[in-house]
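Researcher: Here's a chain I'd like modeled. Treat it as a single chain, no partners, no ligands.
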Amino acid sequence: MVSNIDYSKYENMDKKRLMNALISTENKISKYKQEIENHLNLKKFLESKIKKSLTGNKAQIKAVLVQDSKILNSIKASISKTEKKQIEAELEKEINAEYTDEF
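Model: Modeled as a single isolated chain. Structure tokens:
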């Protein structure tokens, strides 16, 4: 909210009224500075919360990946050498297969 200041109304004021206007202006400036400070603190707080939530997500993703890795390693350890060779052969066959354009 922007307001234009009418300086002409201060031109003919006596000293007492000018002092009161000055004090009032200083009070408004102090109030606005405090509001700005409050908003800056809120901004910092919100940024901190967002950063913390993103960091938390990274930790959760890492935990899932580590858990999946453990599961995969246990599966890999439980497969016999002949089963591994069979899976590798099937995979190689799929990779090298020639697919015709069926469309």
